[in-house]
């Protein structure tokens, strides 16, 4: 069985996205190419790190 975490450096891509969101970096600044799995993971991290109201509302729906 394939370990997805290993494919993304044990969460490094996700954590980098979260840090970017916390730092206020725009989502469009993602360093990974459009359509790549790494871009999806980075973007999810960014969404977790940002405090934009619509993103937070989505998180509440998922985790609340």
TrEMBL record:
Pfam families, per the entry: RMF (PF04957)
Record bears the keyword Cytoplasm: yes
Gene Ontology BP annotations: regulation of translation
Keywords attached to this entry: Cytoplasm, Translation regulation
Name the record gives this protein: Uncharacterized protein
Organism per entry: Enterovirga aerilata
């Amino acid at each position: 069985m394939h370990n997805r975490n290993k494919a993304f450096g044990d969460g490094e891509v996700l954590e980098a996205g979260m840090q970017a969101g916390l730092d206020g970096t725009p989502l469009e600044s993602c360093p990974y190419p459009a359509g790549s799995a790494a871009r999806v993971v980075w973007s999810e991290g960014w969404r977790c790190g940002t405090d934009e109201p619509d993103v937070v509302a989505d998180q509440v729906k998922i985790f609340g």
